[in-house]
Amino acid sequence: MYVCAFWFVTLVMDHSFRSKSKMVLSLFMFVAFLLYLGHLMFFTKAVELYAFYDSIYQFASLSVYPLFFLYILSLTEKPTLRHWFFLLFPPFLIAFITVILDLLMGSKELIAFVKQELYQEQVVFVFSPLGEMRRITLELSKGFFLLQILCVVYGGTRRIVQHEKMVKNYYSNMEGKTLSSIRILLIVFVVTSLCSITVKLIGRSYFIQSELVLAFPSLVFSTLLYLLGFFGSKQSFSAQDFAQDIVAVDDLTETAQIDEFHDEIQFEEIKDRLLDLLENKEYYRQKDLRLSDVSVLLGTNRSYISRVVNQKLHTSFCDLVNKYRIEHAKKLIRQSRESALPLGEIAEASGFSGESSFYRVFKKEIGVSPGSWRESNSF
Fold this sequence. Notes:
It is a single chain. By secondary structure, the chain is mostly helical. It has three domains: about 1-245, Rhopdopsin 7-helix transmembrane proteins (Up-down Bundle); about 255-315, no CATH class; about 320-379, Homeodomain-like (Arc Repressor Mutant, subunit A), CATH 1.10.10. Helix content is about 75%, strand content about 0%. The chain has helices at about 1-15, 20-45, 45-75, 80-105, 105-120, 130-170, 180-200, 210-235, 240-255, 265-280, 290-300, 300-310, 315-335, 345-350, 355-365, 370-375. Helix 1 runs antiparallel to helix 2 (about 20-45), helix 1 (about 1-15) runs parallel beside helix 8 and helix 6 (about 130-170) runs antiparallel to helix 7 (about 180-200). The longest helix is centred in the middle third of the chain and has 40 residues, at about 130-170. The N and C termini lie far apart (about 60 Å).
């Protein structure tokens, strides 16, 4: 609860709060705060207070995972009103039905229901048909919760992979754009989901038996939520930034002469012109080289170049450019054996955005760090 409150306040006070993704993440933290406030009431056995708070708890419980998915959407594409309605209307409807049933049941029956169904206590009480409806609603919410987790894990993974692919096909330098922290968030989310499913299957009443038993899930969830807030607050690149880049450069390409191609010969011609641009003219040495920049230089549509890179060269734009950068860096390392040119200068001369990016890409492609490769090729 305190972790969620901390990140909610931190995100709201962040100077970059204009970011749609951080707004959604802050809303997620607020709803999670309401969820764990309900846990506080439940585990401190404030039965009467919790009985009237349970409808809010139901809404929060069924809203946190849809909100996490909306957060992923805000990073990978622009969530629409349809997304918000489709994802949050079911939790609102179940919570609304819960409120109506709680009001109609009356306080005595409601408290008896909470003690029997949630605290697993033996209660001598004859429940009305409303109580049975309340029990059915509770079971439906449990099933819906489990279904949510499966759908969000699948949908979130799919959208992150798709977005990563689009970004790699547009930028040559992925520094700060890889959504690597979001991949970590997804792992965190999967672990959180497994913990949530376990707790739902066991039942919260089991964890009320001792503070030690309760401490384990509390520590796990607190750690995972803190990591979620931490990586989310550090994430600076989103679909909003990507869309702005696309619009900005497309305004430039509108002034370029666009040559459409419809056959294999023109397809090959664009591939040859692209390779000439990289191999002979060394445009890969431009740090901020983008697919749209290449389309302007070649006087053709960026979607055609993307097709050439993907279908003819069987790679992404980022990997293609980095292949040439790595070869150029290796050449510079060989040429500077005696002078020992700093690797940072080699990275810059090869077109990398920074030394850390150079290290990461070099080790991924070659299998060893630039320093180790230099030592093994020093003779």
